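Ops channel
N.P.: pipeline sanity check, posting one input/output pair.
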């Protein structure tokens, strides 16, 4: 199969946590909510940041710049290749690259009670020459427990590859005459980077303000498909109802569609995440698919590359 893209949708149960709660909003730590304020979510931006932090920790030296000051070296810098960048340059208007990773926000699936926690924070303000004043503040932290659904589309064909339009000169001035490849890291290096992306999703951690809490959104229930055409279909699979059941009609139609399109699908399962576990497995097996441990889904995806 000529792999163009990999789509992964997953569920992750997070304990009482304040994932992605208002970054930098001082003493009030409020959760981001949707669905008329009944469900929490983690922004796609925050998920991407966590993904790259995980990748950075697992692959020393591959990220050569920070996002605020991109180096633009797609060939050597994994961040510029995978995160994309906008690099302003004087006169020319700058260069940019679209990320080959499309990340959706992680949406809390269950309407839950939002717990507010008051805690005191102590810090010392250094006034020099051993004079320190003690600063004591009260912080307000919102916490919640939920099952989050997140998704990512990996545009495999465009990892480590840059194409530019060929602009005509002479008679047909400024007409577009096709595309030329200006950077291509080659299939083997593309495979290495794609595997690193998969490993980072599997090990996803490193959310903002999680320095002391061990909350992560690493996949626990997974629907992954490998496609020979780039599209973002199938990201709504694993949607849950308010009682914690995966919507089986959505799952069934996704399984049907991927079979019709010739996509290769892998389903990963961990007990204790959804309510309708047995019915879920039945639908998967009825459609000729195996229910695999999550780690096995990632191993099989990697084996296809
Ligand atoms: Zn860079």
């Amino acid at each position: 199969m000529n792999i163009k893209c990999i789509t992964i949708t997953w569920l992750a149960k997070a304990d009482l946590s304040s994932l992605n709660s208002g970054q930098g909003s001082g003493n009030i730590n409020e959760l981001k909510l949707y669905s008329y304020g009944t469900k929490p979510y983690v922004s796609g931006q925050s998920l991407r940041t966590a993904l790259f932090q995980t990748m950075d920790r697992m692959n020393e030296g591959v990220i050569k710049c920070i996002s605020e000051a991109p180096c633009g070296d797609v060939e050597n810098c994994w961040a510029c290749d995978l995160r994309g960048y906008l690099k302003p340059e004087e006169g020319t208007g700058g260069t940019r690259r679209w990320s080959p990773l499309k990340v959706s926000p992680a949406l809390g699936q269950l309407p839950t009670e939002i717990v507010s926690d008051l805690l005191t924070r102590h810090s010392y303000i250094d006034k020099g020459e051993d004079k320190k004043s003690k600063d004591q503040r009260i912080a307000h932290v919102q916490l919640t427990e939920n099952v989050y659904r997140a998704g990512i589309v990996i545009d495999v064909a465009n990892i480590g590859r840059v194409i530019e339009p060929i602009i005509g000169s002479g008679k047909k001035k400024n007409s577009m005459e096709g595309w030329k490849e200006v950077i291509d890291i080659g299939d083997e290096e593309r495979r290495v980077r794609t595997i690193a992306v998969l490993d980072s999703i599997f090990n996803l951690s490193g959310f903002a303000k999680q320095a002391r809490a061990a909350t992560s959104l690493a996949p626990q229930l997974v629907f992954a498909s490998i496609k020979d055409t780039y599209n973002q279909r199938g990201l709504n699979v694993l949607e849950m109802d308010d009682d914690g059941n995966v919507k089986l009609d959505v799952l069934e139609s996704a399984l049907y569609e991927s079979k019709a399109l010739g996509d290769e699908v892998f389903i990963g399962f961990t007990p204790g995440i959804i309510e309708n576990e047995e019915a879920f497995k039945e639908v998967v097996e009825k459609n000729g698919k195996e229910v695999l441990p999550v780690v096995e889904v990632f191993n099989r995806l990697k084996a296809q590359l």
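N.P.: looks fine end to end. The radius of gyration is 22 Å.
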